[in-house]
Amino acid sequence: MLDNVSITKKERDCLVTLGKHRDSKFPFRLIDLSKNMEIKPPTALNLIKRLEKKNLVIREKGMIKLTNIGDQRFMGLEETHRVFETLMVKYGLGVDTACTLSENLDYLLNHEDIDRMFDIMGKPKKCPHGIDIVLSH
Question: Given 27, 81, 101, 134, which residue has the most CB atoms within 10 angstroms?
Answer without folding.
Answer: 81
